[in-house]
Specification:
single chain; alpha+beta; 17-stranded mixed beta sheet; about 45% strand
Length: about 260
């Protein structure tokens, strides 16, 4: 079977996007998805995303990590699929779509900046040396003095596989305060099992965590990741965070055709 694929990236977090509205892609073939995401033997990506029909919204987002397994919400992937949906003519400048963690609203500017509404956060675990929450995906957030010096893959994998999170594991974020509303973030992503250049749900967790522990008084946070810059805004109601938006670029890279029989 020949498929048309599209490659997108959001601050260096890259994805294979497929239009699966006719349900032709073998979505349960874990090994195939893993091979497609392989950077040496496939197209190469941090994940693969299917755009599918949905009766309650403009479309459905189905996300797979590069290990081939369907996963929890991906913020940068969510922004990229909005840009992809616009390229396909499925949506214009605003949309609502369904993902694994529920319904999302998003809007896209003429310059390709996508603002994606994330899930509300009302359960935050604050420990002496970390903060944990679910922003669509589970995230461990730790404050560090020099984020550039952190061996992200080594320490991140230790925390991800520790007894703290069990078999499911957690993504791990290291955050360096730059100013009251500006932070640098590096992330170890489960499923990729390595550092990625950016993680949308990760910077969302980092922004909320910094507010929750008093490292910032702002509700508009700028975050520097290895692949560029992202913004997170929110409203705080007691210990609950609502109207959470992740904003940044979502860029088309290239497209092509692939013969799945070769994989």
């Amino acid at each position: 079977m020949i498929i048309q694929f599209y490659k997108y990236q959001g601050t260096g977090n890259d994805f294979i996007l497929l239009d699966n509205r006719q349900n032709l892609f073998p979505k349960n073939d874990t090994k195939l998805i893993e091979r497609l995401c392989n950077r040496r033997f496939g197209i190469g990506a941090d994940g693969l995303i299917l755009l599918e029909n949905d009766k309650n919204s403009d479309f459905k987002m189905v996300y797979y990590n590069s290990d081939g397994h369907e996963s929890s919400m991906c913020g940068n992937g969510g922004r990229c699929i909005v840009a992809f949906a616009k390229q396909l003519g499925v949506v214009d400048n605003e949309t609502t779509f369904t993902a694994v963690d529920g319904m999302h609203y998003a809007k896209i500017s003429a310059s390709g900046i996508v603002s994606l509404q994330m899930k509300d956060v009302d359960q935050i675990r604050i420990a002496s040396d970390y903060v944990f929450m679910d922003t669509g995906s589970p995230h461990h957030v730790a404050v560090v003095e020099d984020v550039k010096a952190v061996p992200v893959k080594e320490i991140g994998s230790q925390i991800r596989y520790s007894d703290l999170y069990g078999a499911a594991g957690s993504n791990v974020n290291f955050v360096e305060p730059i100013s009251d509303s500006h932070f640098a973030v590096r992330t170890y992503e489960r499923g990729v099992e390595d550092e990625t250049l950016s993680c949308g749900t990760g910077v969302t967790a980092a922004a909320i965590a910094m507010n929750a522990i008093g490292k910032t008084t702002s509700n508009a946070i700028s975050l520097q990741v290895e692949g560029g810059a992202l913004g997170v805004t929110f409203q705080k109601d007691g210990t609950r965070y609502t109207q959470v938006f992740l904003t940044g670029p979502a860029k088309f890279v290239f497209e092509g055709q692939l013969d799945l029989s070769q994989f």
